[in-house]
Amino acid sequence: MRDINLGLDDFHQAWKRIENRIHRTPLESATLIGQEIGVKLYLKCENLQKTGSFKVRGNLNKVLQLDADSKEKGVVTISAGNHAQALAWASRMAQTPCTVVMPETAQKSKVEASKGYGAEVILHGTVFEAFEKSFELARENNLTFIHPFEDLNIIAGHGSLGLEILDQLGNVNIIVVGIGGGGLISGISAAVKLTKPDVHIFGVEPVGADSMRRSLDTGKAVKLNKVETIADGLGSPMAGETTFEFVKKYVDDVVIVSDDEITRAMNLLLSRCKLLTEPAGAASVAALLHGKIPCSDGDRVAAVLSGGNIDIDRLKELV
Known about the structure:
Helix content is 47%, strand content 15%. It is built from 14 helices and ten strands.
């Protein structure tokens, strides 16, 4: 069993460390969509966060705690996009060299944004091959490998999002979060449950990248043979062993949505709420719209819109 020893003070310290450097994103009511679902719905707009996703929270918390030698040598990671941009931005803030390995299928806009924030970007093979390449670069160049989700400092930083929701909506009943590797839901669920144990936390995965659901069903963290989903931000090929332990301990359930359900949620968020999300960012609302989350009439529900980074050409295909 992996160590998941993060206490409430760890989450508050992470929040304090980063809060003056990132956005306190709005928690907006979505009355019409909520009426359709039968709840009082609120949208946590991390699509409006710096770099366009929640990822800056964990990455900044991680990089700010590196020692001077590690900062000087630099960091390396693997990412399909949002983690890459966030680490590049956080590294620039900490004046640390950053290398990012991205699969060759990564969205062009996310590649260019990562470069724009100052990272050296290497496009390499599939997501599995990109993982191996990043490990190789870390070994050969003595760089600090920053895992996208298997890191307690990353998880603690992401937990600040949960604390913000409680601060903005103290009487929340349910929080719904998309799952890629599980870093975000690990941080949110632990920070929230350690503060208010009666809040229910639900995770959402796309049908073609359901590693956490399969892990819960089999009792161990699993790796997928392939990933097929429009939600590249949720397209992790594996559930982390650490994040799996967090999910088992703190998350009420993990549900599955289809790509079509995600697309409908994206369109509804754009047309009714004027909020642009990437597919991964709409997964939480997709689960609510299609009855995947057990809710009672009048529940106060916060759905995390995890990101808004999407290529314009890709957007034209989906809306």
